[in-house]
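Encode chain A's predicted structure.
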Amino acid sequence: MPHRSKWLRIMVSIGLAAGLLYLFLKNLDFAKVGEAIASADPWAIGGAVLLSLLNIPIRSWRWTRLVRHVGAVSLRDSISATCIGFAATTLLPARAGEVIRPVALSRKTRLPVAPLLASIGLERLVDLVAILLLFVIYALGGWAPAGMTGDEGLRFALLRRSALIVGAGTVAALAVLGVLAAFPERRERLLAKAVGILPDRVGSKILPLLSGFLKGFDAIKSGGDAAAIGLSSALLWLVISLQIHVSLRAFGLVHPFPVAFFVLTWGVLGLAIPTPGGVGGYHKAVAYALTGFYAAEASTAAAFALVSHVISFVPITVIGLVFLAGSGLSFGRLSEEPTGGKLPP
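Encoded structure for chain A:
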């Protein structure tokens, strides 16, 4: 049954990618898309590639802070595991990289897998808060698209209200989780009581998942930890936004810098669809953001979506494959490792 479930997830992931790619490509003039790519500013593209590479050590250093309570991790080991994980996310379906990344780090450091896996949940929550805050800054700062039609204006207003509500809720939830992290014994007791109201069959499955997720907050033990994680996250997403901004300019899409926060939000929404490397979902979402709200030509928006996706995923994937080859491991072996404790020698 688990084997069948795994293959079902893989087929759904590939099917989603194929369907979204079809929707993205079906009305495009491929000759115009090719012309837009050929005429893109190579210097701006090169700058965007360098910014994408800069993201790697920033993200990796932040991860060393998130797992510091588990054990000391060198920046090199963190970079290696991060690149291997992102390569798996690009090449494999069903978000395999989210598991392979902590397993790869465990292999290198001999640290237990479970708390490393929990750190990924905290990392994703911190990223969500950062992205929502950037979108709120954009939405409240007067950079909204000019001349939107009635439907577009309604969609934008709904998007802004949703971001404010979700952002406020996420920050509040983060504060509550931070308090729970400060009192781990009470946290476990409260969690056991909360899950205890559920049927035993359900509770026995949910309790380890929730407990593991909350253990990720053990990384935040002081104001200094919170500041380091918060500032590195802000730097990470500002660099990613600058990468988007430079890439937009490469295609003649010249907008104020905060507009990159808007495109980033749509890109993240597209990447949330579990396709290999965000293929299809990212392209469709980003192209829609530019054509539906900023009146970009469909061919230009498509060219940007294709090239920006390559910039974001190809360099880190190539580096990850190099690290993987040097480790003597494979995606198959890493994905089949146990995640409940220390790995075998």
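Confidence is low (pLDDT under 50) at residues 341-345.
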